[in-house]
Write a structure and sequence with these properties.
alpha/beta, 2-enoyl-CoA Hydratase, Chain A, domain 1, 2 domains, seven-stranded mixed β-sheet, two-stranded antiparallel sheet, 11 helices, 11 strands, about 30% helix, binds zinc ion
Length: about 325
């Protein structure tokens, strides 16, 4: 569940080849010589690239176009029209109900992560517009405990579904996740059913949802809400799967096909509808939103759903979301 894409800075991590192969050409960089995070190594082309350039290109490699994991706040900025963002449920924060301890207490881990990221949880939710089309947006941020889904993430997704139903707006979700949050034990696994039920209810009421799978989307997130939206998009080269390829290969003791669990492989198998490059994401979303708005189901949509706002202060306390979870409805499609 570690951030593998943006944290490995090639020149910082020991020795680096700078032209030629002789000992004389081998330079040793230390952290004090190179300011941390100035350079990073592309996972795809192995090129050493200037971080600023990557950020300017919406976290894609200037050399090969590889799509790095994008921080949640940048994703929101990159997806929505300027000045339209209005955050929803920012006050809901993670709780350590089980008193879980692994390398340290889970409560401490949350506290450190909140301080480091400036966010209270892994999911950022809100209202906004994509090229003038109003949407409800939910973005999983990988840098918050690997974008893992605990109680709060599940609750916020369910609440987003409620707001989308209530306001008759389409729901767009971006995923980047290591899966369920193990520190929350079974409570985190229950979010799989809860989020699927909430999306099912949105679907039944004529709502429209799009999920964009970004690198990496794995575990309980892939196995739940990420795969049950009306449309499933993916970014190029994104790793999408349940268990990791190494675990699968060692379990079945077989060599995996080339490109296994990558977005391109999954389009071929029909698990992903379309791959969309980051620089085309907004225009594609706008087109798909127009498509969603003119579906027969959308036109026949019933009135607003019950309010969910007043229950936002505490996780797992939304009556609408809970009743959705209890109904045990099957995920759409
Ligand atoms: Zn590259």
């Amino acid at each position: 569940m570690s951030d593998t894409s943006m944290s490995k800075d090639a020149p910082n991590s020991g020795e680096s080849e700078v032209g030629g192969d002789g000992r004389m050409n081998r330079l040793r960089f230390r952290k004090k010589d190179m300011p941390g995070g100035l350079w990073l190594k592309c996972e795809s082309c192995s090129g050493t690239i200037y971080r600023k350039e990557v950020v300017e290109k919406a976290y894609t490699c200037p050399a090969c176009g590889f799509h790095f994991t994008m921080p949640g706040a940048d994703r929101v900025r990159h997806t929505l029209d300027e000045g339209t963002w209005e955050e929803l449920f920012p006050e809901i924060e993670a709780m350590d109900r089980l008193g879980f301890v692994d390398s340290g207490p889970y409560g401490d881990k949350i506290e450190r992560t909140v301080q480091r990221t400036g966010q209270k949880e892994a999911l950022i939710a809100g209202r906004g517009e994509v090229l003038g089309r109003p949407v409800i947006l939910g973005v999983l941020d990988f840098k918050f405990l690997g974008g893992s889904m605990g109680e709060v993430v599940g609750e916020k997704i369910a609440l987003c579904c409620d707001v989308a139903r209530q306001e008759g707006k389409p729901l767009i979700l971006f995923t980047a996740s290591g899966g369920a949050r193990m520190h929350e034990g079974m409570l985190s696994l229950m979010q799989m059913a809860k989020t699927c039920s909430a999306l099912s209810k949105l679907n039944e009421d004529g709502g429209f949802s799009i999920c964009v799978l970004t690198h990496p989307t794995t575990g309980g997130v892939t196995a739940s809400f990420a795969m049950v939206c009306d449309l499933t998009l993916a970014e190029p080269g994104a790793l999408i799967g349940f268990a990791g390829p190494r675990v699968i290969a060692s379990t079945i003791k077989q060599e995996l096909p080339e490109g296994f669990q990558r977005a391109e492989f999954l389009v071929e198998k029909g698990q992903v509808d379309v791959i969309v490059a980051r620089d085309e994401m907004r225009s594609m979303l706008a087109r798909l939103l127009d498509f969603g708005a003119c579906r027969p189901a959308a036109k026949a949509a019933p009135g607003p759903a019950p309010a969910a706002g007043e229950a936002a202060a505490s996780p797992a306390a939304s009556p609408a979301a809970e009743s959705a979870a209890e109904s045990g409805a099957a995920p759409p499609s």
